[in-house]
Amino acid sequence: MPSLKDLKVRIKSVKSTQKITKAMKMVAASKLRRAREAAEASRPYALAMESMVERLAAGYRSQPENAPKLLVGTGSDKKHLLIVTTADRGLCGAFNGSIVRAARRRVAELEAQGKTVRLYTIGRKGRDLLGQDFRKQIAGGRTDVAKKTVAYATADEIAADIFDIMAREGIDVVSIVYNHFKSAIQQVVTFRQLVPLAARAGATEGVQEAYDYEPEESEILADLLPRNIAMQVFKALLESAASEQGARMNAMESATKNAGEMIKKLSLRYNRTRQANITKELIEIISGAEAL
User: Fold this and answer.
1) Per the CB 3.0–4.6 Å rule, which of 45, 131, 248, 289 could disulfide with 28?
2) Is the pTM of this model over 0.85?
3) Cβ–Cβ < 8 Å for 192, 232
4) Do 177 and 106 contact (CB within 8 A), yes or no?
5) How far is CA 192 from CA 71, 85, 199, in A?
6) Which residues share a beta bridge with 80?
7) What residues does 183 pair with on adjacent strands?
8) Which is catalytic among the residues 14, 39, 92, 231?
9) How does pLDDT run across 231-269, given as a tens digit for each residue?
10) Strand order in the sheet with 138-142
């Protein structure tokens, strides 16, 4: 049975932990507001770029032999590159674990179909967790992506890494997995195929005007397709950053509540133990007095 001193030390320790988790919750809430605004602001631009690429690519769907590789792929799907987007830090609930589990399931599914899978990790947690089982399959990665704010230049560098890996290892299909931010309490694990470009339902719906492009569509696509991939990576990074802060805020709120409940239980135990010791001492005093 712990002594009063031990209980007092434990209560003090839990109170210190509660102060830390409460402060982390407030910091995450502050960062969440900025990250959410950035993620929501990126969505219209990313959607407009997708629609533009779809309009330009419509004429190539029927003649894939003349289309760019980034649009229609290599004609095979034997080699896959999966980009896994996680955080550099923990203490954010199931944020990292859900992404890593989804990535492991996807790798298992593809390998069961006889495909070759390579991984590109964004974030320390993904690199460390996936490195335990797929160290030889990791083709590259980045860390400290969202140390302060997510920059488009970082997404552009990641896209350049992806193109290098595709050329070096003959990758046929490139996909990215990330947490899509829906609200502070809901983040959805999302898979998105980047190469070949997956046709989005309704991307060109309602567009009936005929456009004359200058320069030609092929030249515009050659420049726009790499930009589109960089933009989709940038959008995934922003969504992931917002989701991370939302998950951390909820995790720290739960930790703060749990610490409060533990403090109440320990305080009750401390008071009962103290009362029992006082009662024991009184009994000993009374018994000694009667013995005299």
Assistant:
1) 248
2) yes
3) yes
4) yes
5) 14, 12, 11
6) 117, 173
7) 186
8) 92
9) 999 999 999 999 999 999 999 999 999 999 999 999 999
10) 138-142, 116-122, 79-85, 173-183, 186-195
